[in-house]
Design goal:
Blueprint lengths: L3 E4 L4 E4 L9 E4 L4 E6 L4 E5 L6 E3 L14 E6 L2 E3 L12 E7 L2 E8 L2 E8 L6 E10 L5 E14 L1 H4 L3 H7 L2 E4 L2 E4 L9 E7 L5 E5 H5 L9 H5 L12 E11 L4 E12 L6 E3 L2 E2 L2 H8 L4 H19 L2 E4 L3 H21 L14 E2 H9 L6 H12 L11 E2 L17 H16 L8 E2 L9 E2 H14 L43 E2 H20 L3 H22 L8 E2 L5 E2 L9 E2 L1 H8 L4 H16 E2 L2 E2 L2 E2 L25 E2 L3 H10 L3 H11 L8 H4 L7 E4 L10 E4 L4 H13 L2 E4 L2 E4 L9 E8 L2 E8 L5 E4 L2 E3 L3 E3 L5 E7 L1
Parallel strand pairs: 40-44
Antiparallel strand pairs: 1-2, 2-9, 3-4, 4-5, 6-13, 7-8, 7-13, 9-10, 10-11, 11-12, 12-19, 13-18, 14-15, 15-16, 16-19, 17-18, 20-21, 22-39, 23-24, 25-26, 27-28, 28-29, 30-33, 31-32, 34-35, 35-36, 37-38, 38-43, 39-40, 41-42, 41-44
This protein binds beta-D-glucopyranose and 1-deoxynojirimycin (NOJ).
Length: about 800
């Protein structure tokens, strides 16, 4: 069953009814100011950091799930309704939500009145702008009372939801004209405030939430709205809001546009105040002035559209398969942008209060992002490398506002360092910017400790080589990619965090997965060294990769698949010797991608993965699921069977298997798996899948779960980047290399070919792939040997490949 449809020409998903199984959200903003917005107009905004600079309030465990957010009420006679259904919950005559690239549109109609609300965060603007167009098509005059309301968060979202003995005393606002300024804590150390305003004279306001709502009401029926009035309340402590009221008369056929603005301003310390106690509003006024008129708003929308046209034109495919095209050309790349911006911090499931930017997460996000805005990728790589320690290990996360390593989470996730090699190599192949390797980059952000980025990569590799266990395989530490495989944890205390609890370092628990990573990325590092003329170093890296490969073949191969690990007692995990967790997905993906054991091991590993882990929605993490908790395995066995790391389809690692199929040149296998959970292909199962049909979710409940097939934790997942890598570099086979663009597709039998346009190093490559007799590649009409199109100064390069 579907709740909407894809409008590919507009690059929108159109939701045709408000009662989607879960809130279906979108992300607005690209640099500083970000908003999340659901199909019923719920959500929240923050500046850079969802924990430390939360602008509006959101209650994660709310009922209904998505109440609050942007509250618009339209009062027309006895009827009170909201253009996006919530919060008024009045049934509309018709309604639509269109989620597009960086904007969302809501259209609601009731009794001949239409309200079209467009919400966006314009480029380079620290402000959410909401254009509300009211239309009277009823044939008679309408006297409407309209409210636009927002509830402010007292900045630190953890304190905001916990420290009430303080919170209820500190709230402060200023009201001037049609704007409410939220200035809690500005009187003391904060240098920032927010505001909510509208581009027309208001008829009244409220700024104290409880006065506006009344004692027993929620957002569905505030007291002020019921009475069509404003109480002119001035918040003093408690919960500051901005509720702006406009009384509007519309003649038949008349329409009127209002522009609401939720902005964020920082002032220099000396310029904080205009007069004692009165905030300096200059910057706020300047921001508002940029969005006074509908024409200004529309121009910003055009600019946004042009921005996305340019971004998405960097990689487009025409394959004859509409679903493939919409994933590749629109939604997968869009999600890559979102995961790049957010890492795993702020969604409807990630509260934005715990995790900042993850080291491994952000490194992997870059794999799907480097081609979009290489300059931002460059900056991100340096930020990430700057939280690495001198010994090559690293903090696991950092806060985006401070860019400092997060000490609460610490280090010891032994896969982390190797991801830095993965993303740096991908960046250099994309851009040819070898100079980044010389960039002076500190360790642990300490001034004076700077070393070239290349030295960071070197230490990453060295860390793995010097931290190995009894079988010569890399030690796992607190966990590897699978955060929940905690082989050194042995936690028996309820509620203790499995990742950060004091760690019993066995010195024995080893990861076959990290070994696979090492072989793959060790060889990529060697290729980089060779390219830099560091022949000896390349040789050493290759020798190390060979050494680890031998250890995998000797101790990591189980006979029909790759083992997962060795536990703290030296017993295998993910082996036929185990009763539960006999086989895991991760090492099948990485060891096959790395080519360990060649096609023979590869084919057997993938056949086993399909046989034991395959379900309707992909490949599960492990099987059989753990039925009981085992302290020697950790969090993985804490989840009920079939959920999360205990045997769901953890979508992030499925593209590894897709790429592994490509490594074995099995196009049917690759495509079969890709389409089992690519959102556009399962849109018509939305009532089972439940999360948004236009983006990947982290996890889909496995066969052992009661709710088999139900997805959770949409948006912020490494699935986005890896799926894009799998489809663009694996299935379509378009791979950036140091010296050119390789075209090496791995298509399913039914696919005849495709066309791709790919912007690479400033040249637009127009690539066509067809099946035929005269196999081989032509570049600008001339046959070439191999299948790599060389770099060129030309603006356009035509590549034809016959397979
Ligand atoms: C989740 C993992 C997550 C980890 C670290 C676990 O509870 O299941 O997916 O990576 O916490 O936050
Ligand atoms: C989600 C985390 O963000 C990611 O880093 C991890 O690899 C997966 N969970 C698997 O545990």
């Amino acid at each position: 069953m579907k709740y909407g449809y894809f409008d590919d020409a507009a690059r929108e998903y159109v939701i045709t009814r408000p009662d989607t199984p879960l809130p279906w959200i979108n992300y607005l903003g690209s640099d500083g100011f970000f908003s999340l917005i659901s199909n019923t107009c719920g959500g929240y905004s923050f500046y850079k950091d969802a924990k430390l600079r939360r602008i509006t309030r959101f209650r994660y465990n709310n009922v209904p799930h998505d109440d609050g957010g942007r509250c618009f009420y339209i009062c027309d006679g006895d009827a009170v309704w909201s253009p996006a259904f919530l919060p008024a919950r009045t049934e509309l005559d018709s309604s639509l939500c269109r989620h597009g690239m960086g904007y969302s549109v809501f259209e609601g109609w009731k009794n001949g009145v239409g309200a079209e609300l467009t919400v966006t965060v314009p480029l380079h603007t620290d402000m959410e702008v909401q254009k509300l167009v009211l239309k009277n098509e009823s044939g008679e005059e309408k006297r409407l009372t309209v409210y636009g309301v927002t509830e402010f968060c007292l900045w630190n979202s953890v304190d905001d939801s916990t420290n009430f003995q303080r919170n209820w005393n500190i709230g402060e606002v200023e009201i001037e004209g049609s704007a409410v300024y939220h200035k809690t804590e500005y009187r003391e150390r904060r240098d920032h405030y927010s505001f909510y305003s509208v581009n027309a004279p208001i008829s009244g306001f409220d700024t104290d939430r409880d006065t506006f709502l009344g004692r027993f009401n929620g957002w569905s029926g505030p007291d002020a709205v019921k009475k069509r009035v404003s109480f002119q309340s001035v918040a003093s402590g408690w919960a500051p809001i901005a509720a702006l009221r406009l009384d509007i008369a519309l003649a038949p056929g008349e329409s009127r546009a209002l522009i609401f603005r939720l902005g964020y301003v920082e002032n220099e310390y000396e310029k904080k105040f205009a007069a004692p106690g009165i905030i300096n509003k200059e910057k706020a006024r300047a921001l508002m002035a940029r969005f006074e008129t509908e024409a200004q708003f529309d121009a910003a929308m055009d600019e946004l559209k042009a921005h996305w046209d340019a971004l998405l034109s960097r990689f487009t495919v025409e394959s004859g398969d509409k679903k493939l095209d919409r994933m590749v050309n629109i939604w997968n790349q869009y999600q890559c942008m979102v995961t790049f911006n957010m890492s795993r911090s702020a969604s409807y499931y990630e509260s934005g209060t715990g995790r900042g930017m993850g080291f491994r997460d952000s490194c992997q996000d870059l794999l799907g992002f480097v081609h979009l805005i290489p300059e931002r990728a460059r900056e991100r790589i340096i930020d990430i490398a700057s939280i690495q320690f001198e010994d090559g290990s690293t903090y696991h996360q950092y806060q985006p506002l401070t860019k400092r390593g997060n000490a609460d989470v610490g280090s010891g996730f032994n896969d982390d360092p190797l991801w830095l090699i993965a993303c740096t190599c991908a960046y250099v192949r994309e851009t040819g910017d070898f100079a980044i390797l010389d960039h002076p980059t500190p360790f642990n952000n300490e001034k004076g400790s700077e070393a070239p980025l290349m030295e960071h990569l070197r230490r990453s590799l060295n860390y793995t080589m010097t931290h190995r266990g009894p079988h010569g395989l890399p030690l796992i530490g607190r966990a590897d990619w699978n955060d929940c495989l905690n082989l050194n944890c042995f936690s028996t205390t309820p509620g203790e965090n499995f990742q950060t609890c004091s760690n019993y370092e066995s010195g024995r628990a080893e990861s076959v997965f990290i070994a696979g990573m090492f072989v793959k990325y060790g060889r990529e590092f060697a290729a980089l060294c060779e390219r830099l003329g560091l022949a000896d170093e390349a040789e050493r890296a290759l020798a190390s990769a060979d050494e680890i490969e031998r250890a995998v073949l000797e101790y990591g191969w189980d006979g029909e698949w790759f083992k997962r690990a060795y536990d703290a007692f030296g017993r295998p995990v993910g082996s036929s010797e185990n009763e539960e967790g006999r086989i895991y997905v991760e090492p099948q993906g990485f060891c096959v991608m790395a080519g360990i054991g060649g096609a023979d091991h590869g084919k057997r590993a993938l056949a086993s993965a399909e046989k034991y882990l395959g379900n309707d929605y992909g490949i599960e993490v492990l099987s059989p699921c753990y039925k009981e908790y085992h302290d020697y395995l950790g969090e993985i066995s804490s989840y009920p069977p079939g959920y999360k790391e205990n045997g769901s389809v953890f979508c992030h690692n499925n593209p590894w298997i897709t790429l592994a199929y490509c490594k074995l040149k099995d196009g049917n296998g690759a495509f079969r798996l890709y389409t089992r959970n690519a959102p556009a292909y399962i849109e018509d199962k939305s009532e089972i899948h439940r999360t948004e049909p236009y983006c990947y979710s982290q996890t889909i409940a496995g066969r052992a779960a009661r709710n088999y097939g139900e997805a959770k934790n949409s948006w912020l997942t490494g699935t986005a980047a890896w799926s894009f890598a799998a489809v663009s570099q694996g299935i379509l086979g378009i791979r950036p290399e140091f010296d050119g663009l390789t075209v090496d597709p791995c298509l399913p039998d039914h696919m005849e070919g495709f066309r791709v346009t790919r912007l690479f190093r400033g040249t637009r490559y127009e690539i066509s792939v067809t099946r035929g007799e005269n196999k081989g590649m032509k570049v600008d009409g001339k046959p070439v040997s191999g299948n790599t199109a060389p770099l060129t100064e030309a603006a356009l390069c035509r590549v034809e490949l016959v397979i």
